[in-house]
Amino acid sequence: MNTSSELHLRRKQRQRHKIKLTSSGRLRLCVFRSNKHIYAQIIDDVKSMTLVCASSVEVALKDKASKGSNKDAATYIGQIIAERAVKSGIKEVVFDRSGYLYHGRVKSLADSARANGLSF
């Protein structure tokens, strides 16, 4: 019997494999969520570099949201990551939800990033 963490790892690997097959060199918007915070970064897999990042740990979020673990914080992080990406000249990415369901905080971050200029 597999544990929930093993199942999550399998979902994450399966999705990452599909992204690598179909992305054709595009940058990857990767999301990580913990119980207290949410993190997003845009990664260039060819160069193995993080180009843009944003997280709810940043000081700027303290004024905008009371907690880093709710949809409001995720929406704000999506807005920040999109603004920083557009400022860096990045417009198209592939969304990597890291095995999480496209629901709740992950969906809020993705919708906010799309609304602020990223396309995926």
Pick out the low-confidence regions.
none
Query: What does the oligomeric state look like here?
Result: single chain
The N- and C-terminal alpha carbons lie at a distance of 36 Å
Elements, N to C (H/E): HEEEHHEH
Overall number of strands = 4
> What structural class results from the helix and strand content?
alpha+beta
The helix tally amounts to 4
What fraction of the residues are assigned to beta strands by DSSP?
Answer: 15-25%
The gross shape turns out to be globular
Helix content: 40-55%
> How would you write the strand order of the largest sheet?
3-2-1-4
Rg, alpha carbons = 14 Å
The major sheet is characterized as: 4 strands, mixed
- Mean pLDDT equals 92
Structural account:
The chain is α+β, with helices and mostly antiparallel strands and 120 residues long. Helix content is 42%, strand content 21%. It contains four helices and four strands, in the order H-E-E-E-H-H-E-H. A four-stranded mixed beta sheet has the order 3-2-1-4. Strand 1 and strand 2 form a beta hairpin. The N and C termini lie far apart (36 Å).
Task: Provide a short characterization of the protein structure.
The chain has 120 residues and is an alpha+beta fold.
